[in-house]
Amino acid sequence: MPSCATPSPIDVRDLRLDTAHALAVQAGADDAALRSLPPVQYVQSLIDGLCELSLQDPLTGLANRRHFETVLAQEMDRVSRSGESALLLMMDIDHFKRINDLHGHVVGDKVLQSVAQVLRACVRPMDTLARYGGEEFVVVLPTCQTAFGAMVAERIRRMVAETPIRVSPTQVLQVTLSVGGAFAMPWIRSTPQLWIERADQQLYLAKSGGRNGVRIEAPPDSTVSAEEKSLLFGGSFPSSVWGSLPASDAASSA
């Protein structure tokens, strides 16, 4: 017969938590406050801190690609069910390789951190801003009306272009950003990868068009005509449909 004995509780002193503790403190947790917690709360705090670190880009402090992809899939599912609008922007620092080649990677890292700070000031708390990789950033903007998409992207581009980046006591750099964007397809269950590809295509057009610019894909026309509404909601057949019905069917429908 299987044993029904209650498993013995884990003694926190038996766990190897030094590395987890060091990472939590490095991420901003208070060392003394952590150590003063009761054992269960201490372990839970370490787990929560490590989970947060796993979703964060270590250089810029923004969300990382893993977190971005999760949010993107959730937003696409929401849009397909609700029909609300959502905008994906992909942004790339222009001529970033030249910055690394001329000034070194330490300066390049400072530029990335500064641009991330500017971008963070441009988005809403409900938006998800992430470092996508290298010098590329992305932001998911839920409930962003199509009429405002280009305005939002242009404000971001302008703020980056107008913000000087001090990389040393005697040196200031100016960088620019190319921005491409695409709206999610309302009421359509597409895939996150296709949404990314559509936004990335617009980013390519912005860069090939001279950089320091914005390109937003024209939103799909999802307007439902009066005749379509009549058919969808059980109203009488519109005149254009009557003409296509056989006489016997038209008479039986009258």
CATH fold-level assignment of the domain at 65-216: Alpha-Beta Plaits
Helix content: 40-55%
Tally of strands: 7
Superfamily at the CATH H level of the domain at 65-216? Answer: Reverse transcriptase/Diguanylate cyclase domain
CATH class of the domain at 65-216: Alpha Beta
Shape: flat
State the end-to-end distance. 75 Å
Order of helices and strands: HHHHEHHEEHEEEHEHHH
Tell me the number of helical segments per DSSP (H or I, 4 or more residues long). Answer: 11
Largest sheet: 5 strands, mixed
Task: Please name the CATH architecture of the domain at 65-216.
Answer: 2-Layer Sandwich
Label this structure with key terms.
Alpha-Beta Plaits; two-stranded antiparallel ribbon; 11 helices; 48% helix
Can you give a write-up of this model?
48% of the residues lie in helices and 15% in strands. The chain is of the alpha+beta class and 254 residues long. Residues 236-254 have low confidence and may be disordered. It has eleven helices and seven strands. The chain has helices at residues 18-26, 31-35, 39-54, 65-82, 96-103, 105-122, 149-162, 192-208, 226-232, 239-242, 247-253, and strands at residues 86-93, 128-133, 136-142, 165-168, 171-173, 177-183, 214-216. Strand 6 (177-183), helix 8 (192-208) and strand 7 form a beta-alpha-beta unit.
Short account of what is shown:
The chain is of the alpha+beta class and 254 residues long. It is built from 11 helices and 7 strands. It has a domain at 65-216: Reverse transcriptase/Diguanylate cyclase domain (Alpha-Beta Plaits, 2-Layer Sandwich), CATH 3.30.70.270.
